[in-house]
Design a protein that fits this description.
alpha/beta, TIM Barrel, two-stranded antiparallel ribbon, 11 helices, globular, binds ligand PBG
Length: 337
């Protein structure tokens, strides 16, 4: 074997990498990273009522949907080839415990069964957290010291059971409580739901990129912030520990969130674990591209493709993104405007 670096043929002017860039066909066959519509998960915000399609101001093109409207939307995304959704709910009433989160006729429980009766083939993932449902806006219940980890676990377990009962395929605990994956796995199994999967928000950073979501879901903490439970974004070794623990507790799928500012975390997770890896291109990442696109400062469609390609290249098996529909269209029709 000729060592690559010392071979005279391996260098310019003999070797020219532009050879494979000169036509669309060449570029295409040597493309290392390919996006596919089945990589995408579309998040939805579901609200009570009828005929509601309430625009979410900081997330142009996204809406809070009542269930009837949501079903129309689901029909549209499935026609585009998208196979999976992730549901977030807006409750009628908020209280200290976030009771609607685990009520059998809560908004999400209704949405899950409506979607499943509409089309049983759609993969339904659900957010398991309290922040949209509590009057104080934290992801767990409070005691004098702040968010009470272990008391919150019981409620997260109840939420997971209620989603499984309504027909969810995968529950996604996002509260960042210690032990949430293990607790949920146990209560699901004890209740006979051993086929329901868990997507663990393993490495979820404390992030300014969740801002638009909190407006969409009405889930900002009234007092304080989430730094006592969400991770310090600079800690990649701690991210790996979060993942290790979630794997040990029974996670089926690992989620890294946010995505763009955490590409190294995605890549390290992919190289260190054998579970599927999902990344969440969050609301603030969506808002940035939308704002720049709307101003004509970037070509929005190609920026979407480039962004999603980076998430895939870093190691994401699944990409949760509000751009799912736009991207599915681009993948079908190409970019030309
Ligand atoms: C919390 C939750 C959040 C998001 C998903 N689940 C917000 C938060 O932690 O404050 C953010 C998603 C996004 O920004 O798109 N349950």
């Amino acid at each position: 074997m000729v060592p690559m670096t010392s071979s005279s043929n391996a260098n310019f002017p003999y070797m020219r990498l532009r050879r494979f860039r000169k036509s669309a066909g060449l570029r295409d066959i040597f493309s290392e990273t390919r996006l596919h519509v089945s990589d995408l998960v579309m998040p939805f915000f579901v609200t009570h009522g009828q005929g509601i399609r309430q625009p979410i101001v900081p997330m142009p093109g996204q809406f809070q949907f009542s269930i009837d409207q949501l079903l129309q939307e689901v029909t549209e995304i499935t026609a585009l080839g998208i196979r999976a959704v992730l549901l977030f709910g807006l409750p009628q009433v908020k209280d200290q415990q976030g009771s609607e989160a685990f009520s059998s006729d809560g908004i999400i429980q209704q949405a899950i069964s409506a979607i499943k009766s509409h089309d049983p083939e759609i993969v339904v993932m659900t957010d398991v957290c309290l922040c949209e449902y509590t009057d104080h806006g934290h992801c767990g219940v409070l005691n004098d010291a702040g968010v009470d980890n272990d008391a919150t676990l019981d409620l997260l377990g109840e939420i997971a059971i209620s989603h499984a009962t309504a027909g969810a395929d995968i529950v996604a605990p996002s509260a960042m409580m210690d032990g949430q994956v293990g607790t949920i796995r146990k209560v699901l199994d004890d209740a006979g739901y051993n086929q329901v999967g868990i997507m663990a928000y393993a490495a979820k950073a404390y992030s300014s990129f969740y801002g638009p979501f909190r407006e969409a879901a009405g889930s900002s903490p009234k007092q304080g912030d989430r730094q006592a439970y969400q991770m310090n974004g600079g800690n990649i070794r701690e991210s790996m520990r979060e993942i290790e623990l979630d794997v040990a507790e029974g996670a089926d799928l690992i989620l890294i969130k946010p995505a763009l500012a955490y590409l190294d975390v995605i890549s390290k997770a992919k190289n260190s674990f054998t579970l599927p890896i999902a990344s969440y291109n969050v609301s603030g990442e969506y808002a940035m591209l939308k704002a720049a696109g709307a101003n004509g400062w970037i070509n929005e469609k190609s920026a979407i493709v480039e962004t999603m390609t980076s998430l895939k290249r870093a190691g994401s098996d699944l990409i949760i993104t509000y751009f799912a529909k736009d991207l599915a269209r681009v993948l079908k029709e190409g970019i030309d405007e």
